[in-house]
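Quiz preparation item.
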């Protein structure tokens, strides 16, 4: 066997791993068996890059390391299962690489091409607000309406939802309906076609 030496080979932006008879290898050989024939050795290099998963809160962003070898410029990587940093008001529904396009979020486990200079991925969240109409007893639900919105992690705000108060007369127990009141602020009265505004809530 011949012991291979670790050369001071330099390739800008890369780490030298060692020598190998396979030009596509991802590790260097420590030694070679003795042979009477010619042997060609290839320098093996690696470069680490990062996928950054941006959440609704920057200090909770997650990074995934990806290693490129030799002449690789693109690598296929499965998206990580990173839904830990979820605001209770927003449901994680997937990822996007384009902040302006959230119509079809990528799912956990989907394969994505990562360029050698790294990739930024943004979590996509959905929020909703449900307006429920209940009888005077505060328990009997009459009807409800839910509105939703979708946003990327860099655009999370306290979304406001506007509901048009139902436009019909409600009669119960022989009484004529006058108006609705907010269960939180009972001084707020809402009549037919009034606009009720609320922020994202579960």
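Solution:
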């Amino acid at each position: 066997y011949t012991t291979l030496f670790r050369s001071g080979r330099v390739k800008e932006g890369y780490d030298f791993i060692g020598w190998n008879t396979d030009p596509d290898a991802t590790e260097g050989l420590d030694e070679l068996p003795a042979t009477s024939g010619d042997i060609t050795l290839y320098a093996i290099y690696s470069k680490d890059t990062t996928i950054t998963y941006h959440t609704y809160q920057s200090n909770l962003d997650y990074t995934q390391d990806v290693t490129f070898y030799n002449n690789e410029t693109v690598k296929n990587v499965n998206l990580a299962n990173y839904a830990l940093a979820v605001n209770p008001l927003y449901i994680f529904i997937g990822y996007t690489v384009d902040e302006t396009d959230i119509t079809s979020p990528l799912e956990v486990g989907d394969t994505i091409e990562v360029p050698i200079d790294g990739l930024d991925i943004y979590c996509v969240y959905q929020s909703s607000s449900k307006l429920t109409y209940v009888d005077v007893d505060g328990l009997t639900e009459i009807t409800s309406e839910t509105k939703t919105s979708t946003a990327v992690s860099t655009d999370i705000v306290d979304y406001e939802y506007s509901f048009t108060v139902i436009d019909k007369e409600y009669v119960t127990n022989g009484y004529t309906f006058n108006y609705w009141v907010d269960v939180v602020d009972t001084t707020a009265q809402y009549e037919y076609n009034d606009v009720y505004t609320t922020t994202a809530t579960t």
